[in-house]
């Protein structure tokens, strides 16, 4: 696992996908440390003296040779709102890469399931799996079409399937209702990120299908180093910090999953 580093990046672009969702592209000094799908960063909120803590954000994309990092972010509070307002050229301190990674398979069909902003790590994961020789399928769920933001990069990396609860895009229903999970299931692994109820339901399906399910947990994190114990989760091996021993866990090892 690469050593974490603290680096200063310049904002190259903030792209607003909807009123409360944006992608932030940062430019650093290449080459960057190696980053793996599933890892995250602790991002400073500059110019906000009343926002004391960095924000933990899944790494959406990374280009080591060009020195670029990207984050897919939902505005949920003061800190992420300030990040959404950053202008090109502003400086941001980033601690990364943090946490572990999804397991990369070099063959077989892998189902990636994302709910809401759980799509954040899935682009890099799909690209990494495809590059390794596996066949990724990405299933994305949202409340409505306004929650689904799929660029051409996703389609280049994976087959993309969509569900919305109101039927305004893709198949009507939740991701766990999609036929790909019920009919002719032929995946060798499930990787998921999103709301806990969704991921727990997928863990049950994975057990029924006799495949491994890896889930990226979105517990509250304050420090990112395992010191504050905000993100502790119960596992079959005792309590573990999501920020240091996760965020990716085999769901068979999570209590009550």
What does this structure look like?
The chain has two domains: 94 residues, Elongation Factor Tu (Ef-tu), domain 3, CATH 2.40.30.10; 145 residues, Nucleotide-binding domain of ferredoxin-NADP reductase (FNR) module (Rossmann fold). It has 257 residues and is α/β, with parallel strands linked by helices. It contains five helices and 15 strands. It is globular. A hairpin with a 2-residue loop joins strand 1 and strand 2. A seven-stranded mixed beta sheet has the order 10-9-8-7-11-12-15, sandwiched between helices.
Summarize the structure.
This protein is an alpha/beta fold and about 260 residues long. It has five helices and 15 strands.
The average pLDDT is 94
Largest sheet: 7 strands, mixed
Q: What structural category characterises the helix and strand content? A: alpha/beta
Helix content estimate: 10-25%
User: In the residues, how many domains can be counted?
Assistant: 2
The N- and C-terminal alpha carbons lie at a distance of 27 Å
Q: Which CATH first-tier class of the largest domain would you pick? A: Alpha Beta
CATH fourth-tier homologous superfamily of the largest domain: Nucleotide-binding domain of ferredoxin-NADP reductase (FNR) module
Percent of residues in β-strands: 35-45%
Number of strands: 15
**What kind of oligomer do you see?**
single chain
Alpha carbon gyration radius: 18 Å
Question: What attributes characterize this protein structure?
Answer:
257 residues, 16% helix, Elongation Factor Tu (Ef-tu), domain 3, single chain, Rossmann fold, globular, alpha/beta, 15 strands, 6-stranded antiparallel barrel
């Amino acid at each position: 696992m690469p050593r974490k580093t603290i680096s200063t990046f310049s904002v190259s672009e903030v792209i607003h996908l909807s009123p409360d969702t944006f992608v932030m592209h940062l430019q650093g000094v290449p080459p960057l440390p190696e980053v793996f799908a599933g890892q995250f960063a602790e991002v400073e909120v500059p110019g906000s003296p009343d926002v004391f803590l960095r924000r933990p954000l899944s790494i959406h994309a990374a280009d080591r040779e060009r020195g670029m990092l990207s984050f897919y972010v939902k505005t949920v509070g003061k800190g992420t709102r300030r990040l959404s307002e950053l202008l090109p050229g502003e400086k941001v301190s980033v601690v990364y890469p943090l946490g572990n990674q999804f397991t990369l398979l070099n063959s077989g069909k892998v189902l990636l399931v994302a709910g809401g902003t759980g799509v954040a790590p899935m682009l890099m994961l799909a690209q990494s799996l495809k590059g390794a020789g596996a066949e990724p399928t990405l299933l994305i769920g949202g409340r409505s079409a306004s929650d689904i933001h799929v660029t051409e990069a996703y389609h280049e990396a994976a087959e993309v399937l969509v569900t919305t609860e109101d039927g305004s895009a893709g198949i009507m229903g939740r991701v766990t209702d999609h036929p790909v999970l019920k009919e002719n299931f032929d995946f060798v692994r499930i990787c998921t990120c999103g709301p806990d109820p969704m991921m727990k339901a997928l863990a049950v399906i994975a057990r029924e299908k006799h495949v491994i399910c890896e889930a990226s947990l979105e517990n509250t994190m304050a420090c990112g180093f395992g010191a504050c114990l905000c993100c502790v989760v119960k596992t079959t091996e005792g309590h573990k910090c999501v920020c240091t021993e996760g965020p990716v866990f085999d769901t068979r090892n999570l209590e009550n999953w």
